[in-house]
Every structure is written in structure tokens, then in C-alpha cells.
Predict the structure.
Amino acid sequence: MIVQLLRESRGSVVLLVSMGNLLTCVGCLVLFLGSIGLLSFDSFALGLSSGIRNIAMIAITGCLLSAIGYGIQDYFKS
């Protein structure tokens, strides 16, 4: 039943991969811009967490979403 449900949800897997790739690219771009001085990491600081940690969290989340999406695609490839 679960296998049938996942096979039918190809659109959501494509969305998962696309969102993951987008988050990864945005996170890496902001990290690059911050490292060359065009953006301030302090503007992304929330609470006790530093700005660079929050930006890296976005890039890592994108990598994980992409990996999950690509893993589901490979698992159900026929």
C-alpha cells in the first residue's frame, strides 16, 4: 500500500527535489556573498545562534531534501 502511494506521487517527489536544489543554491550563494563581504552575517543572527549557522542550516536542509527526493526516485525506478 505504501509502495503504491509513493509510486503515484511523482509530482511531489519532483517538488521535493526542486525545493532542495533551490534551498541549496540559495544557501550557498548567501554564504558566498557573506564571505566576500557583500552581505552581513549579523543580519541573519537569531537568538543565540550566529548568522552563518542559520545560513548553513538552509543549505544543509536543501541537501537533505534533495537526497531524500533523489533516493525515492532511485528506489522506484523501473
In short: DSSP finds three helices and no strands in the chain. The chain has one domain: 20-75. The CA atoms of residues 8 and 61 lie 25 Å apart.
